[in-house]
Amino acid sequence: MRATLTSETSSPTAHSRGVLLVFAATVAWSASGIYARLLTTDAWTAVAWRALFAALFLIVPMALFGGAGTRRAWKKSFGPTGLALIAFQTISQAAFIGAYYTTSVANVAVIYATAPFIAAVLGWLLLKERIVLRTMIAGLACLIGVGIIISASLGAGRIVGDLLALLMTVTFAFVIVIPRMDPDLPAMPPIFISAVLTFLLFAPFGSWGSLDAHNLVVLAAFGATNFSVALVLFIIGARHLPPAESALIGTTEVVMTPVWVWLLFAEPPPFATIVGGAVIFSAVVWYTLSELRRGKA
């Protein structure tokens, strides 16, 4: 889960600390492919128990950053926008794990990198936000990259996983846009609720017998890393950086996620993924660098 934050004015030392913390958060996020490949349980069980551990570990950042809020904040989470956020977050998390089980880690990582540009289109459709030319160019390039990846998967048995990765990305783009539709919507309670809901929905279909010590440890680490540790590191670090700089550091996740799996599990990215991923990665880097230069102008 990512956050959009306004950076605070910071000293060079604070800026350096911010860079290190955001990079550490990105490394933590990039470990998702490792956890997915370490699991030996079925996808239903993985979705459910990762979500449960995520909810448990999310309690810490909620307490640290006031995410629990007041009774009004929790009540707001069950309003129309809150329920929409919960629904899209639930679908996104389930599709995320499902994609890892049915396609390559590299495909999931590079398709997910297109989320900001899908969010820009949704912002235009739902909020009438203007899309600047550089966003359109980068978004078109990302669309071409995704097309290359998915077209190569048609005959390789990965199409279901690629479509799940695309579903995850589109629903997460809604997660990005919905808070802009309702600025008063609390951030963390809906995410906590969606994690609990995901567990309740998928646990009945899982295999309790597959939850040995190994899988429980991996699932606990998976939930803690992606929902708690990375979130805390990112929130603290991004306070000292321009949003574009945080986004630029975050693009390294696109490269790191498949590289870890390649090195540790001998799962090389498909050639089409390398080509499509290079197109997507170049577009994302070009866009975030242009945003960073514009912010300094």
Gap from first CA to last CA? 30 Å
Number of helices: 14
How many β strands by DSSP?
Answer: 0
Count of all domains: 1
Roughly how much helix do the residues carry, as a percent range?
over 70%
Biggest sheet details: none
Round the Cα radius of gyration to an integer and report it. 18 Å
Residue stretches low in confidence (pLDDT < 50, at least 5 long) are 3-9
Strand content: under 5%
What structural class should be given to the helix and strand makeup?
mainly alpha
What is the molecular shape?
globular
Domain EamA: 17-150, 161-287
Organism: Bosea sp. NBC_00436
InterPro entries: EamA_dom, EmrE-like
Protein name: DMT family transporter
If you had to describe this structure to a student in words, what would you say it looks like?
It is a single chain. The chain has 297 residues and is an all-alpha fold. It has one domain (12-296). Helix content is 78%, strand content 0%. The chain is built from 14 helices and no strands. The protein has helices at 12-30, 32-38, 43-64, 71-76, 80-102, 105-112, 115-127, 133-153, 159-181, 188-202, 213-238, 243-250, 252-265, 271-296. α6 runs antiparallel to α13. The longest helix is centred in the C-terminal third of the chain and has 26 residues, at 213-238. It is globular, with a radius of gyration of 18 Å. The chain starts with 11 loop residues before the first helix and ends with a helix.
Topology:
Blueprint: H1 12-30, H2 32-38, H3 43-64, H4 71-76, H5 80-102, H6 105-112, H7 115-127, H8 133-153, H9 159-181, H10 188-202, H11 213-238, H12 243-250, H13 252-265, H14 271-296
GO cellular component, one term: membrane
Transmembrane segments: 20-39, 51-70, 82-102, 108-127, 136-157, 163-179, 191-210, 216-236, 271-289
Domain EamA: 17-150, 161-287
